[in-house]
Automatic annotation (TrEMBL):
Gene3D superfamilies: 3.90.1200.10. Residues 214-323 form the Ternary complex associated domain. Coiled coil: none annotated. One of its GO terms (molecular function) is transferase activity. InterPro entries: Kinase-like_dom_sf (IPR011009), TCAD9 (IPR045544). This is Phosphotransferase enzyme family protein. Keywords: Transferase.
């Protein structure tokens, strides 16, 4: 490396309205970007300048995320990366799990640098794989995109998921593997208990919460009594609609981002997280976007949602074709055209999610879990229950639908 190596780093972002504070913040980050540039200069000598600008939505987990464009001499266009700034512990943790993912070739090789004094780390991923990229969430909520294209994106990404069993990791008691979802800061079990103890004003909710609690106790003691353990698979761990990117012009080109939750555990999780996102988050966001006559309310009757969930439970991992689903919902009272359109979009996506889950769980049960005697459907619904329980305190999920879902799924697990 030459002694005069000093690319120009620019942030198209203000960290604070106060100029001095802004300079302090950006100086910390620039010194980390310089460390990254030194590492990358080995691959691409003659780095001239680096430009950072914020992504549409910065990370929710307290991280700051920027697109990073790196320019070299004699080339007009940049090489693109994403840079994530967060504290050192989080950076180290994400680096380590991203390395596992990169080894399995489900993510590009990450690069990190640290500033111990200010407790700040940078994690950089290259963005070479997908052009014209967009979050799956925005794509799904964009009604100019077809239902089939949404499903194709899921089909594409799920070909990469659940492919990496690893018997060099220890088996984990089933419930322990789901602790990372259940034992959250949002304390879903406590929340459930307070619903269960709530006054008679909320009778319906209290009843639901009591029944869900009972399901939880029953499932936990069944898993415990039978010593059910998990054969570890590499899982992304946080596969929701904002951590899946696709090419806006070709939704079969997909890629995962955000490897902070990647670990070895039960392979059903990744499918279930996406299913929960579709049912309890995206459907709720989608309905108001679908046009409807002014005289008709937006609201979907809870009974109808329960019947939708019931249909999904009854049919398990082998969901019928969409025409059969349409016939079924025609018979549900209180649903209007906009509900049908929304439910249909979600359902077409769920078909792909469950098809892919069935493939993986069939393999899982046959080769890696002949002892427990649980079927692929049971693995799926028990995992669904536990993950949904963990997410039930999140502000992004529709709270009542999530409770109805937990109740219905819990009922279906005998
Ligand atoms: N590799 C990437 N490619 C494109 N966009 C990305 C990438 N990584 C992050 N982003 C954008 O930044 C947002 C937040 O990044 P993410 O790594 O998911 O942070 P958090 O851990 O806070 O959720 C994402 O939702 C996405 O819009
Ligand atoms: Mg994320």
């Amino acid at each position: 490396m030459t002694a005069d190596f000093r690319p120009n780093v620019n942030f198209e972002y203000r960290f604070s309205r106060d100029i001095k504070e802004n300079d302090v913040e950006s100086t910390k980050m620039i010194s980390l970007v310089m460390k990254f540039a030194e590492i990358e200069n080995y691959n691409f000598p003659h780095i001239e300048s680096i430009l950072l600008y914020p992504v549409e939505r910065a990370g929710k987990s307290g991280s700051q995320v920027f697109y990073l464009d790196l320019y070299v001499k004699k080339v007009e266009y940049p090489r693109r990366y994403v840079a994530k700034f967060q504290d050192i512990t989080k950076t180290e943790k994400e680096l380590s799990s991203a390395r596992d993912a990169a080894f399995a070739q489900i993510c590009p090789k990450p690069c990190a640098a640290y500033d111990e004094i200010n407790n700040l780390g940078i994690l950089v991923y290259n963005l070479a794989k997908i052009h014209n990229h967009r979050e799956f969430r925005g794509f799904f909520l964009d009604l100019t995109k077809s239902d089939q294209d949404c499903a194709s994106a899921l089909k594409a990404i799920f070909q990469q998921v659940g492919r990496h069993p690893n018997n060099k990791e220890d088996r984990i008691p089933f419930l322990n593997d789901y602790r990372r979802y259940i034992d959250r800061r949002s304390a879903p079990l406590n929340r459930l208990n307070s619903f269960a103890n709530s006054s008679s004003e909320y009778n319906g909710i209290a009843d639901l919460a009591i029944s869900i609690n009972k399901h939880y106790e029953r499932i936990a003691s069944m898993l415990d009594k039978n010593n059910v353990s998990v054969f570890p698979y590499l899982v992304h761990g946080d596969l929701h609609a904002r951590n899946l990117m696709l090419n806006d012009g070709d939704p079969t080109q997909t890629e995962l981002i955000d490897f902070g939750w990647t670990h070895y555990g039960h392979p059903a999780k990744d499918f279930i997280l996406m299913e929960i996102t579709l049912k309890y988050m995206l459907l709720h966001e989608l309905l108001p976007k679908i046009s409807r006559p002014e005289s008709i309310g937006l609201h979907m009757p809870l009974m109808a949602f329960e019947q939708f969930e019931q249909f999904l439970c009854t049919n398990g991992l082998e969901l019928p074709e969409v025409v059969e689903f349409e016939k079924h919902i025609e018979g549900i009272d209180g649903l209007y055209e906009h509900h049908h359109i929304g439910l249909r979009r979600v359902y077409i996506s769920l078909i792909e999610v469950r098809k892919a889950a069935l493939n993986v769980l069939n393999e899982y049960c046959t080769h890696h879990d002949p002892e427990s005697g649980l079927s692929p459907n049971q693995h799926f619904f028990i995992s669904h229950f536990l993950v949904a329980l963990g997410l039930s305190g999140f502000s992004e999920v529709e709270p009542i639908w999530t409770l109805v879902g937990l109740h219905t799924v819990g009922n279906s697990i005998c």
